[in-house]
Structures
1.
Amino acid sequence: MSEDKNRDQLRRYFLMGKIPFALDESTYHRFSERNTVFSRVGWDTSYRAFRRGISDREAELVGRKGYSRFGFAASPASWMVHDYFLREFSQEEAESLQSTGFTQVSSNLPRYESGDLNLNSDRVKRLAQIFGACDVGIVNIDPKQHFIYTHNRKGKRINLPNGIKHAIVLLIQMDYSALMTSPKLPASITVGNAYSRAAFAVGCMAEAIRNLGYQAIPSVNSMGPSVPLAVLAGLGEFGRNGLLIHPKFGQSVRIAKVFTDLPLNADSPINFGAVNFCRVCRKCAKSCPSQSISDGEPTWESPWNTPSNNNGVYKWYVNADTCYDFWVRNATDCSNCVRVCPFTKPPGAVHDGVRFFIRNLRFLNRFWVKLDDFLGYGKSKDPDDFWKSEIYLNQEMKR
Ligand code: SF4
Ligand code: SF4
């Protein structure tokens, strides 16, 4: 089959929902974590945000609405568990972790032996819930390791240890009312909080698996791009803004994973109409303050010339350079594209009903987008309300 025909078939299958994404083997190459913007700010002198951090403008913005002194204290603090424990207890730091005893196996029992893959899978999913995940899936690592980085952000080659066959993918829920204040500081606090809880969850998961006598590498953003692994693990679909859309939690989740050789059953990808909804929705592209999200149909190549995009997948590309530029200007991160996404809503009978129609009656999608706008969903909420404990209590009681 010619390359064009192959691409065309993959593209059609993707848009019909027959495959979770379309990857062109002839042009796709594994990615290095050094090419993510978070790494490039440290080494890429050609990037205009070289050596610019999101705290650079704190002093300029503090005191403005949404940028309170408490916010600037809480936002970096929310990342503490993730950052303090050496990048989510990951392989990159394994040697120093072992020297501090963090990854020592703490069980004296012999290795756990069970051929019951269903039981093992169910137990690890329950463990993930206990440690804080709102949903969990399992994916087989493909032999070509498409979604494992070639190098970590220090430039060291990543070699998965022999025998690692699966990734357990965990979703950690973020706080809906905080997200609704994006791009102000309260939204950043729930993002950092979710990353810290993700680091805690995968750290505990990996320790439990090692205690069973198997290998386990915890990771949040390291080791490989999380979104494709989550899609393959049956946790959702790719959104226009490059993030996962979960059928229940929408985009109000962060993703983490544990790579392991514990024998497990993989889950299958799901399709609930999200990709086709994105084709008509475009709310994230319209609401992005830096116009970093593709507004048209998916493409095989990025429209932007940046090393932070990886061509060869038929998808909507996001300009990570201009996105991060906005974060620097904003003195904190941004979740506007998550805030406005019609899938980012608390669960409830009405929203579940709409999700049923999105899954089954595609021709109504434009109507749902218009209704979402009409009802004012996704509008930025007053960041001052986030700090009122009484309002928070009332919201919790309504859940
Ligand atoms: S995080 Fe903000 S700046 Fe970045 S793509 Fe989303 S909306 Fe745009
Ligand atoms: S805002 Fe709309 S287009 Fe963007 S990810 Fe959500 S559903 Fe897709």
2.
Amino acid sequence: MFGLSGEKPLVGLDIGSHGVKALELRTKRKGKTDVFAVARAGYAPLPPDAIVEGAIIDSAAVVETIKAVFAKAKITNKDVVISISGNAVIIKKIALPAMENEELAESIIWEAKHNIPYPYEETSVDYAILKPKPGEDRNLEILLVAVKKDKIAAYSHVINQARKNLVAIEVDAFALFNALEANYPEEFAEKTTALVNLGANLATIVIIERGVPQLFRDLSVGGLYFIENLRKDFNLGHDEAEGLLQGIDARTVSAAEVESVLAANLKGLIEEVEKTLGFFTAEDKREKRIEELFLSGGLANFRNIAAAFEQKLLVPTALFDPFRKIAYNDKKLNPAYSRTMAPFFAVSAGLATRKREK
Ligand SMILES: Nc1ncnc2c1ncn2[C@@H]1O[C@H](COP(=O)(O)OP(=O)(O)OP(=O)(O)O)[C@@H](O)[C@H]1O
Ligand SMILES: [Mg+2]
């Protein structure tokens, strides 16, 4: 979205509230398509109070963690693309009659002023024109994206402090859209698919119908919601509660009780996602169905989560593989970033595979 042009590869840098992921790809042009291979990948956790609800609280910790990820993974390329998510991002789909470009630019400003719940001056606005539906080519379907400028400034600041060059800013939902296109081209082009990225602070939902984005939504629920509930219910510290979420037994609490809290949280999460998917399937009169659901993000590592989604939503569900079409040589990379880390890299894979703006 918000970016400059360039041919050099960019490092996809996903600064989540729980951890920083960096991914650098090598690209080869094969006929009309780009073929990707992982050049370097790095991950490092952030302290729990460094980024809270998407706001950078401890920028020094974020800067140090970014530097550590680059150093550990030996990434020397300083050109990064980052993404922003949460309530600082507004994505709206609007319909406009077909018009000339100049007129369109003015209409977009008007639409942004009327559709975005923040003062226009406080946001950066960009848009993408979606493929017109067959038979409806007189109308333009436009995806309007607005990001709060203060958020952009805060993230730009940590990138500068970490001595990297911020080449472009994306939003998580678009990165996930790109990651799905790059890795599941058949499903992307031919089916109605949903990708749900389950992070610490947020669940980002993307619905794509035959290559066209239909719904982008960030829900305020993720691993942290599980951890906070475990912490309160069993009077534990953050790390111990997080351990329980990741299947590490705590000596002081009974496994059965933990199980029931985790099951209740999982049920709540799935219901929230179901509600959002319902906005799409119930949107207009024609029959709409999600044909395939993918899960990514750290919380997608929660045992059997795909089966739980599938059972409740009755939609075939699988873990999303952000390296499905990206050559990935475990042996050449630091073993800590083996394939078991794949679910964490969905957003960074989408950032690193994004098409350069011309
Ligand atoms: N094995 C596991 N089982 C369950 N949860 C896990 C596991 N491993 C990591 N998590 C959880 O995944 C979350 C981190 O995922 P991720 O790195 O995708 O989040 P993030 O991008 O940093 O956060 P956000 O984008 O929401 O700010 C944490 O809440 C963590 O506890
Ligand atoms: Mg994230």
